[in-house]
Design brief:
By secondary structure, the chain is of the alpha/beta class. It has a domain of about 230 residues: 3-Layer(aba) Sandwich (Rossmann fold), CATH 3.40.50. Helix content is about 20%, strand content about 20%.
Protein backbone atom coordinates (compact mmCIF):
# COMPACT_ATOMS: atom_id res chain seq x y z
CA UNK A 1 0.00 0.00 0.00
CA UNK A 2 1.63 3.25 -1.11
CA UNK A 3 0.89 6.32 0.99
CA UNK A 4 1.48 9.96 0.10
CA UNK A 5 2.00 11.96 3.26
CA UNK A 6 0.44 15.42 3.36
CA UNK A 7 1.29 18.23 5.75
CA UNK A 8 -0.24 17.24 9.08
CA UNK A 9 -1.48 19.27 11.99
CA UNK A 10 -3.01 16.35 13.91
CA UNK A 11 -1.68 12.95 14.88
CA UNK A 12 -4.79 11.03 13.82
CA UNK A 13 -5.08 10.60 10.07
CA UNK A 14 -7.92 9.54 7.80
CA UNK A 15 -6.64 7.47 4.89
CA UNK A 16 -8.33 7.27 1.49
CA UNK A 17 -8.01 4.01 -0.40
CA UNK A 18 -9.07 2.78 -3.81
CA UNK A 19 -11.33 -0.25 -3.57
CA UNK A 20 -9.18 -2.86 -5.29
CA UNK A 21 -7.48 -5.90 -3.77
CA UNK A 22 -4.10 -4.27 -4.43
CA UNK A 23 -4.90 -0.81 -3.09
CA UNK A 24 -3.07 2.46 -3.52
CA UNK A 25 -3.63 4.85 -0.63
CA UNK A 26 -3.41 8.55 -0.02
CA UNK A 27 -3.57 10.07 3.43
CA UNK A 28 -6.00 12.95 3.55
CA UNK A 29 -7.86 15.04 6.11
CA UNK A 30 -6.87 14.86 9.77
CA UNK A 31 -9.50 13.73 12.25
CA UNK A 32 -10.54 16.14 14.95
CA UNK A 33 -13.62 15.83 17.12
CA UNK A 34 -13.46 19.54 17.75
CA UNK A 35 -13.74 20.38 14.07
CA UNK A 36 -16.18 17.73 12.88
CA UNK A 37 -18.59 18.98 10.21
CA UNK A 38 -22.30 18.41 9.82
CA UNK A 39 -23.20 17.34 6.30
CA UNK A 40 -26.97 17.54 6.48
CA UNK A 41 -27.26 21.03 5.05
CA UNK A 42 -25.14 20.96 1.89
CA UNK A 43 -26.91 22.65 -1.00
CA UNK A 44 -26.45 20.79 -4.31
CA UNK A 45 -24.10 22.64 -6.64
CA UNK A 46 -25.18 22.92 -10.27
CA UNK A 47 -22.87 21.75 -13.03
CA UNK A 48 -22.82 23.28 -16.50
CA UNK A 49 -21.42 20.53 -18.72
CA UNK A 50 -20.46 16.88 -18.42
CA UNK A 51 -17.16 15.45 -19.59
CA UNK A 52 -16.83 13.31 -22.69
CA UNK A 53 -16.65 9.53 -22.72
CA UNK A 54 -13.27 7.86 -22.16
CA UNK A 55 -11.47 7.70 -25.50
CA UNK A 56 -10.48 4.05 -25.01
CA UNK A 57 -14.10 2.89 -24.87
CA UNK A 58 -15.02 1.86 -28.39
CA UNK A 59 -18.75 2.43 -28.10
CA UNK A 60 -20.70 4.73 -30.40
CA UNK A 61 -24.28 5.08 -29.20
CA UNK A 62 -26.78 6.42 -31.69
CA UNK A 63 -30.20 7.98 -31.37
CA UNK A 64 -31.70 4.89 -32.97
CA UNK A 65 -30.40 2.46 -30.38
CA UNK A 66 -27.41 0.26 -29.65
CA UNK A 67 -26.07 -2.90 -31.18
CA UNK A 68 -26.40 -5.88 -28.87
CA UNK A 69 -22.92 -6.78 -30.10
CA UNK A 70 -21.62 -4.10 -27.74
CA UNK A 71 -22.69 -6.27 -24.81
CA UNK A 72 -19.51 -7.69 -23.26
CA UNK A 73 -19.02 -11.02 -21.53
CA UNK A 74 -18.79 -9.40 -18.08
CA UNK A 75 -22.16 -7.70 -18.52
CA UNK A 76 -25.48 -9.22 -17.59
CA UNK A 77 -27.65 -10.10 -20.63
CA UNK A 78 -30.14 -7.67 -19.10
CA UNK A 79 -28.01 -4.80 -20.39
CA UNK A 80 -28.48 -5.53 -24.09
CA UNK A 81 -32.18 -6.20 -23.42
CA UNK A 82 -32.46 -2.73 -21.90
CA UNK A 83 -30.73 -1.21 -24.93
CA UNK A 84 -33.08 -3.07 -27.26
CA UNK A 85 -35.98 -1.53 -25.38
CA UNK A 86 -34.52 1.94 -25.91
CA UNK A 87 -33.03 2.52 -22.45
CA UNK A 88 -29.32 3.26 -22.30
CA UNK A 89 -28.96 6.13 -19.85
CA UNK A 90 -30.06 9.13 -21.91
CA UNK A 91 -30.87 12.08 -19.65
CA UNK A 92 -28.93 10.69 -16.67
CA UNK A 93 -25.52 11.88 -15.49
CA UNK A 94 -22.91 9.61 -13.89
CA UNK A 95 -20.18 11.40 -11.93
CA UNK A 96 -17.16 9.29 -11.01
CA UNK A 97 -15.22 10.33 -7.91
CA UNK A 98 -11.88 8.59 -8.23
CA UNK A 99 -8.14 8.82 -8.79
CA UNK A 100 -7.46 9.68 -12.43
CA UNK A 101 -3.71 10.10 -12.03
CA UNK A 102 -1.62 8.42 -14.71
CA UNK A 103 1.23 7.80 -12.27
CA UNK A 104 2.54 4.26 -12.63
CA UNK A 105 1.36 3.33 -9.12
CA UNK A 106 -2.25 4.13 -10.10
CA UNK A 107 -2.31 2.15 -13.35
CA UNK A 108 -3.88 -1.29 -13.73
CA UNK A 109 -3.91 -3.51 -16.79
CA UNK A 110 -7.23 -4.89 -17.90
CA UNK A 111 -9.44 -5.71 -20.85
CA UNK A 112 -13.19 -5.09 -20.69
CA UNK A 113 -13.75 -6.16 -24.27
CA UNK A 114 -12.26 -3.14 -26.00
CA UNK A 115 -8.62 -4.22 -25.93
CA UNK A 116 -5.88 -4.49 -23.31
CA UNK A 117 -4.92 -1.18 -21.71
CA UNK A 118 -3.01 0.08 -18.70
CA UNK A 119 -5.25 2.78 -17.25
CA UNK A 120 -5.87 4.76 -14.11
CA UNK A 121 -8.31 3.45 -11.54
CA UNK A 122 -10.70 6.28 -12.41
CA UNK A 123 -10.50 5.60 -16.13
CA UNK A 124 -11.55 1.99 -15.56
CA UNK A 125 -14.46 2.78 -13.25
CA UNK A 126 -15.77 5.67 -15.36
CA UNK A 127 -15.37 3.65 -18.54
CA UNK A 128 -17.25 0.64 -17.19
CA UNK A 129 -20.24 2.71 -16.10
CA UNK A 130 -20.27 4.33 -19.54
CA UNK A 131 -20.18 0.94 -21.25
CA UNK A 132 -23.28 -0.09 -19.30
CA UNK A 133 -25.11 3.20 -19.97
CA UNK A 134 -23.45 4.68 -23.08
CA UNK A 135 -26.06 7.37 -23.66
CA UNK A 136 -25.65 8.81 -20.16
CA UNK A 137 -23.67 12.01 -19.67
CA UNK A 138 -20.38 11.56 -17.86
CA UNK A 139 -18.59 13.75 -15.35
CA UNK A 140 -15.65 13.15 -13.07
CA UNK A 141 -13.87 14.60 -10.06
CA UNK A 142 -10.39 13.55 -9.00
CA UNK A 143 -10.25 13.22 -5.24
CA UNK A 144 -6.47 13.69 -5.26
CA UNK A 145 -6.82 17.26 -6.50
CA UNK A 146 -10.40 18.34 -5.81
CA UNK A 147 -11.26 17.04 -2.34
CA UNK A 148 -11.87 20.62 -1.23
CA UNK A 149 -14.62 21.02 -3.82
CA UNK A 150 -18.29 20.11 -3.47
CA UNK A 151 -19.37 17.50 -6.02
CA UNK A 152 -21.49 19.32 -8.62
CA UNK A 153 -24.76 17.87 -9.87
CA UNK A 154 -26.36 18.12 -13.30
CA UNK A 155 -29.24 20.60 -13.43
CA UNK A 156 -31.64 18.14 -15.07
CA UNK A 157 -32.21 14.39 -15.09
CA UNK A 158 -31.06 11.73 -12.66
CA UNK A 159 -27.71 12.21 -10.94
CA UNK A 160 -25.66 9.10 -10.11
CA UNK A 161 -22.35 9.29 -8.24
CA UNK A 162 -19.90 6.40 -8.41
CA UNK A 163 -17.60 6.13 -5.39
CA UNK A 164 -15.10 3.30 -5.80
CA UNK A 165 -12.89 4.30 -2.89
CA UNK A 166 -12.79 4.11 0.89
CA UNK A 167 -11.87 6.42 3.76
CA UNK A 168 -10.24 4.52 6.58
CA UNK A 169 -9.48 5.48 10.15
CA UNK A 170 -8.66 3.50 13.29
CA UNK A 171 -11.60 1.66 14.83
CA UNK A 172 -11.20 3.73 17.99
CA UNK A 173 -12.81 6.67 16.21
CA UNK A 174 -16.44 7.33 15.35
CA UNK A 175 -18.19 9.10 12.48
CA UNK A 176 -18.53 12.14 14.76
CA UNK A 177 -14.72 12.43 14.76
CA UNK A 178 -14.43 12.68 10.99
CA UNK A 179 -13.34 16.00 9.57
CA UNK A 180 -14.83 15.42 6.12
CA UNK A 181 -13.59 17.36 3.13
CA UNK A 182 -16.14 19.31 1.10
CA UNK A 183 -16.14 16.46 -1.42
CA UNK A 184 -17.26 13.91 1.15
CA UNK A 185 -19.59 16.41 2.81
CA UNK A 186 -21.50 16.69 -0.44
CA UNK A 187 -21.38 12.96 -1.17
CA UNK A 188 -22.86 12.07 2.22
CA UNK A 189 -25.37 14.90 2.06
CA UNK A 190 -26.65 13.90 -1.38
CA UNK A 191 -27.29 10.36 -0.16
CA UNK A 192 -28.81 11.57 3.09
CA UNK A 193 -31.18 13.99 1.42
CA UNK A 194 -31.89 12.00 -1.73
CA UNK A 195 -30.34 14.44 -4.20
CA UNK A 196 -28.37 11.77 -6.07
CA UNK A 197 -27.86 8.02 -6.09
CA UNK A 198 -24.49 7.08 -4.60
CA UNK A 199 -23.12 3.70 -5.72
CA UNK A 200 -20.44 2.91 -3.14
CA UNK A 201 -17.99 0.03 -3.55
CA UNK A 202 -18.48 -2.16 -0.48
CA UNK A 203 -14.77 -2.82 0.05
CA UNK A 204 -12.30 -5.68 -0.20
CA UNK A 205 -11.53 -6.45 3.43
CA UNK A 206 -13.72 -9.60 3.62
CA UNK A 207 -15.59 -8.13 6.60
CA UNK A 208 -19.08 -6.77 7.15
CA UNK A 209 -19.61 -3.11 6.32
CA UNK A 210 -18.89 -1.11 9.45
CA UNK A 211 -16.51 -3.71 10.89
CA UNK A 212 -12.77 -3.24 11.33
CA UNK A 213 -10.41 -4.90 8.89
CA UNK A 214 -7.30 -6.90 9.77
CA UNK A 215 -5.37 -3.66 10.25
CA UNK A 216 -7.89 -2.43 12.82
CA UNK A 217 -9.34 0.21 10.48
CA UNK A 218 -12.91 0.99 9.42
CA UNK A 219 -14.11 2.56 6.19
CA UNK A 220 -15.94 5.45 7.81
CA UNK A 221 -17.34 6.63 4.49
CA UNK A 222 -19.39 3.42 4.44
CA UNK A 223 -20.47 4.10 8.01
CA UNK A 224 -21.46 7.69 7.30
CA UNK A 225 -23.51 6.67 4.27
CA UNK A 226 -25.35 3.85 6.03
CA UNK A 227 -28.19 6.00 7.35
CA UNK A 228 -29.00 7.73 4.06
CA UNK A 229 -31.79 7.38 1.52
CA UNK A 230 -30.09 6.87 -1.83
CA UNK A 231 -26.83 5.05 -1.16
CA UNK A 232 -26.27 1.58 -2.59
CA UNK A 233 -23.38 -0.49 -1.27
CA UNK A 234 -22.14 -2.86 -3.96
CA UNK A 235 -20.45 -6.19 -3.33
CA UNK A 236 -18.68 -8.38 -5.88
CA UNK A 237 -19.93 -11.81 -6.95
CA UNK A 238 -17.99 -14.58 -8.66
CA UNK A 239 -20.01 -13.88 -11.80
CA UNK A 240 -23.49 -13.06 -13.03
CA UNK A 241 -25.72 -15.58 -11.29
CA UNK A 242 -28.53 -17.61 -12.82
CA UNK A 243 -30.98 -20.05 -11.28
CA UNK A 244 -28.97 -22.95 -12.72
CA UNK A 245 -25.47 -21.50 -12.18
CA UNK A 246 -25.65 -19.57 -8.96
CA UNK A 247 -23.04 -17.03 -7.95
CA UNK A 248 -21.26 -16.61 -4.62
CA UNK A 249 -19.76 -13.57 -2.97
CA UNK A 250 -16.11 -13.10 -3.87
CA UNK A 251 -13.91 -14.08 -0.94
CA UNK A 252 -12.40 -10.58 -0.80
CA UNK A 253 -15.71 -8.72 -0.90
CA UNK A 254 -17.17 -7.01 2.12
CA UNK A 255 -20.65 -8.19 3.04
CA UNK A 256 -23.80 -6.54 4.36
CA UNK A 257 -23.44 -7.78 7.93
CA UNK A 258 -26.14 -7.68 10.60
CA UNK A 259 -26.93 -3.96 10.39
CA UNK A 260 -30.42 -3.92 8.87
CA UNK A 261 -29.89 -0.40 7.49
CA UNK A 262 -26.93 -1.67 5.49
CA UNK A 263 -28.74 -4.86 4.44
CA UNK A 264 -31.57 -2.76 3.02
CA UNK A 265 -29.12 -0.81 0.82
CA UNK A 266 -26.74 -3.56 -0.27
CA UNK A 267 -26.63 -5.13 -3.76
CA UNK A 268 -24.13 -7.37 -5.48
CA UNK A 269 -23.13 -7.91 -9.12
CA UNK A 270 -20.72 -10.19 -10.95
CA UNK A 271 -17.03 -9.23 -11.11
CA UNK A 272 -15.25 -12.02 -12.98
CA UNK A 273 -11.58 -11.05 -13.24
CA UNK A 274 -11.03 -13.37 -16.21
CA UNK A 275 -13.71 -11.53 -18.17
CA UNK A 276 -12.19 -8.19 -17.12
CA UNK A 277 -8.65 -8.98 -18.18
CA UNK A 278 -7.42 -9.28 -14.60
CA UNK A 279 -9.33 -6.43 -12.98
CA UNK A 280 -10.84 -7.47 -9.64
CA UNK A 281 -12.46 -5.79 -6.67
CA UNK A 282 -15.67 -4.12 -5.60
CA UNK A 283 -14.34 -1.00 -7.35
CA UNK A 284 -15.54 -2.62 -10.54
CA UNK A 285 -18.88 -3.70 -9.10
CA UNK A 286 -20.02 -0.19 -8.20
CA UNK A 287 -19.89 1.24 -11.76
CA UNK A 288 -22.12 -1.58 -12.99
CA UNK A 289 -24.82 -0.50 -10.54
CA UNK A 290 -24.15 3.15 -11.45
CA UNK A 291 -24.87 2.21 -15.06
CA UNK A 292 -28.03 0.35 -14.05
CA UNK A 293 -29.27 3.38 -12.15
CA UNK A 294 -28.61 5.64 -15.16
CA UNK A 295 -30.55 3.24 -17.40
CA UNK A 296 -33.49 3.36 -15.01
CA UNK A 297 -33.25 7.14 -15.10
CA UNK A 298 -33.65 7.05 -18.88
CA UNK A 299 -36.96 5.19 -18.54
CA UNK A 300 -38.43 6.64 -15.36
CA UNK A 301 -37.61 10.21 -16.28
CA UNK A 302 -39.84 11.86 -13.68
CA UNK A 303 -38.90 9.58 -10.79
CA UNK A 304 -36.78 10.77 -7.89
CA UNK A 305 -33.38 9.34 -6.94
CA UNK A 306 -35.07 7.77 -3.92
CA UNK A 307 -37.66 6.00 -6.07
CA UNK A 308 -35.03 4.66 -8.47
CA UNK A 309 -32.80 3.55 -5.60
CA UNK A 310 -35.70 1.66 -4.04
CA UNK A 311 -36.61 0.12 -7.38
CA UNK A 312 -33.13 -1.32 -7.80
CA UNK A 313 -33.06 -2.58 -4.22
CA UNK A 314 -36.55 -4.06 -4.15
CA UNK A 315 -36.20 -5.97 -7.42
CA UNK A 316 -32.93 -7.73 -6.56
CA UNK A 317 -32.81 -11.50 -6.97
CA UNK A 318 -31.96 -14.03 -4.30
CA UNK A 319 -32.62 -17.17 -6.37
CA UNK A 320 -29.40 -16.66 -8.36
CA UNK A 321 -27.17 -16.78 -5.26
CA UNK A 322 -25.61 -19.65 -3.37
CA UNK A 323 -26.86 -19.94 0.22
CA UNK A 324 -28.57 -16.55 0.22
CA UNK A 325 -28.40 -14.68 3.49
CA UNK A 326 -29.20 -11.01 4.03
CA UNK A 327 -26.11 -10.76 6.23
CA UNK A 328 -23.98 -11.69 3.22
CA UNK A 329 -25.83 -10.41 0.16
CA UNK A 330 -28.14 -7.74 1.56
CA UNK A 331 -31.04 -7.41 -0.87
CA UNK A 332 -29.41 -9.78 -3.37
CA UNK A 333 -28.09 -9.64 -6.92
CA UNK A 334 -29.10 -6.53 -8.86
CA UNK A 335 -31.57 -7.34 -11.65
CA UNK A 336 -31.80 -4.70 -14.34
CA UNK A 337 -34.60 -6.53 -16.16
CA UNK A 338 -36.79 -6.71 -13.06
CA UNK A 339 -36.10 -3.09 -12.18
CA UNK A 340 -37.12 -1.96 -15.68
CA UNK A 341 -40.21 -4.16 -15.87
CA UNK A 342 -42.99 -1.83 -14.65
CA UNK A 343 -44.36 0.97 -16.79
CA UNK A 344 -44.01 3.45 -13.93
CA UNK A 345 -42.61 3.49 -10.40
CA UNK A 346 -43.56 5.49 -7.36
Amino acid sequence: MKKILPKLSHLAILSLVLITPSSFAQLVNPISAATSISVSGVTPVAKAAATTAPTWVKVSPTAGGLSTGLNQAWMSPDVSSAWSSGYSGKGSTITSIDNFSTATSNLSTGNVGTGTFSLSHGAWTAGMSYMIAPNASLASQDYTTASGTLIPLAKTGLNVINASYAMYAAKTYTVANMNWSKEEQSLISYATNGNAIVAKAAGNDAVAIGAANAAGQIDFLNTALSTGKTQIFVGALTGNGTTTAKASMQTYSNTAGTNTLVQAHFLSVGVNSTQLGGLAGTSFAAPIVSGYAAILGSKFTTSTPTSITNQLLNTARTDTLNNYSAAVYGKGEASLSRALAPATIK
